[in-house]
TrEMBL record:
UniProt domain Photolyase/cryptochrome alpha/beta: residue ranges: 3-126
Keywords from the named record: Chromophore, FAD, Flavoprotein, Lyase
The protein's name: Cryptochrome/photolyase family protein
Xref: Gene3D superfamilies: 1.25.40.80, DNA Cyclobutane Dipyrimidine Photolyase, subunit A, domain 3 (1.10.579.10), HUPs (3.40.50.620)
Length: 461
């Protein structure tokens, strides 16, 4: 009897261009397994929006495996312990998995490797995290030289087809997906998610083909919230339904500036993983020292700060572009990238609330909540990161809204302002046309800017 090989799945829910599947399939029967592990991540338990996506992504993968003559095994518990038990049950020769950079997964990989033959492969990023080094042999900390090094190193990208899988003589027991209760029920808040998204590898590739049709003007269109100018591939990438190398390969040879700018965003994703590999607690600790001493207002001990945080979370700040973004996030589990920057800057600088409050909110509400990218983006906006925007560079949300033509976007997500035309919809308070059912600004722009600069100056001593 040929010993089976286990493929341990996490954020790599696909068959094509999945090196762990290929390696296992070449050696014998394959047992694909996903372990729902809420113990190893501890404070990084998957957020509610991501759990919704996970349910549907696992459903799609199970169907894909069934069509390939295989099946998906589901188990729940601490991953290292569950996999060790499963290997003993099945007599598995080895466990194959894609290497992850999140600190909790690195810990689980080390624990599992002590007891079993764990074989790790690279496949989540364009290049293996940690493989790019400066001339001095150290990891890159600054994005631009990292980007240039990756472009020089990557060469022509090939992708793996889906492997042919053989089944073991007998299948181990599996949990039922519905028993995991990943979907919201009381209340069912995911109606907007169902309207906006179709998880799964097939849907990811369909979206990739749609995106190629609008890629040429991507440099300009990605900045405009009111049009479909972004890739909307981030949740598919996060859950590994499509690989970054598949995307890189798909747009190879396409002309214009659009492909280059999209490639830069894929490289930023690699860069974020590179930072978390160097600084595992990057999602919980400011890289720059001193920023946590006296700069932030504390919502736990300051009622005004708590009210401001709640207004931001609920999209009730009185700043239309910020509120539209936060409501889009709540309704669909996603927010336009330009608006993410505006909303994040507003929380950190206008409201002087710690970037970690925003990072945690995004972690729970985003379907593309990715630890390296989320941490890197928030630290960039807050000015606390390795390579980041300066704190004293404060976005003006009202002028940003008009600059990037967000009127239709605001009218869609803030119905109280639905009857206002441009330019009034961007700043109804200043034009004295704010509807009664829309809140006044929680703080004036000039007042917020001056408060932030004064707090920064005081922090600097």
């Amino acid at each position: 009897m040929t010993q089976p090989h286990i493929v341990w799945l996490r954020r790599d829910l696909r068959l094509a261009d999945q090196p762990a599947f290929h390696a296992a399939a070449a050696l014998g029967p394959v047992i694909p397994v996903y372990v729902l592990d809420d113990e190893t991540p501890r404070h990084r338990r998957m957020g509610a929006a991501s759990r919704w996506w996970l349910h549907h992504s696992l459903e799609a993968l199970a169907l894909e495996l069934e069509a390939a003559g295989s099946r998906l095994i589901l188990r729940r518990g601490k991953a290292a312990e569950v996999l060790a038990t499963l290997a003993q049950e099945t007599g598995a020769a080895a466990i194959h998995a894609l290497r992850h950079v999140e600190p909790w997964w690195r810990m689980a990989e080390k624990e599992l490797a002590k007891a079993l033959d764990l074989r790790l492969y690279d496949g989540l990023y364009l290049m293996p995290p940690g493989s790019l080094r400066t001339g001095g042999g150290t990891p890159y900390k600054i994005f631009t030289p990292f980007k240039n090094a990756l472009i020089d190193a990557i060469g022509e990208v090939d992708v793996l087809p889906a492997p042919r899988l053989s089944a073991p003589e007998s299948w181990p027991a599996s949990d039922k997906l519905d028993d995991w209760a990943l979907l919201p029920t009381t209340p069912d808040w995911a109606g907007g998610f169902r309207e906006a998204w179709t998880p799964g590898s097939a849907a990811a590739h369909a979206r990739m083909e749609e995106f190629k049709d609008i890629l040429a003007p991507y440099r300009q269109d990605r900045e405009l919230p009111s049009i479909d100018g972004t890739s909307r591939l981030s949740p598919h990438l996060h859950f590994g339904e499509v690989s970054p190398r598949q995307l890189w390969h798909a747009i190879a040879g396409m002309g214009g500036q659009g492909p280059g700018f999209f490639k830069a965003e894929l490289i930023w994703r690699d860069y974020a993983a590179n930072l978390v590999l160097q600084f595992p607690d990057y999602g919980a600790r400011s890289y720059r020292e001193g920023y946590d001493e006296g700069l932030w207002r504390d919502p736990e001990n300051d009622q005004a700060a708590a009210a401001d945080l709640a207004a931001w979370q609920q999209g009730r700040t009185g700043y239309p572009i910020v509120d539209a973004g936060m409501r889009q996030l709540w309704h669909t589990g996603w927010m336009h990238n330009r608006v993410r920057m505006i909303a994040a800057s507003f929380l950190v600088k206008h409201l002087l609330i710690d970037w970690r409050q925003g990072e945690q909110w995004f972690w729970d509400t985003l379907v593309d909540a990715d630890y390296p990218s989320n941490a890197t983006n928030w630290q960039w906006v807050s000015g606390t990161g390795v390579d980041s925007n300066m704190f004293v560079r404060i976005m003006a949300p009202l002028s940003q809204s008009e600059k990037f033509d967000a009127g239709a976007y605001i009218r869609q997500w803030v119905p109280e302002l639905g009857k206002l035309s441009d330019p009034y919809v961007h700043d109804p308070e200043s034009f004295r046309c704010r509807p009664r059912d829309y809140p006044a600004p929680v703080i004036g722009h000039k007042e917020g800017r001056e408060r932030a600069l004064a707090a920064y100056k005081a922090m600097k001593g």
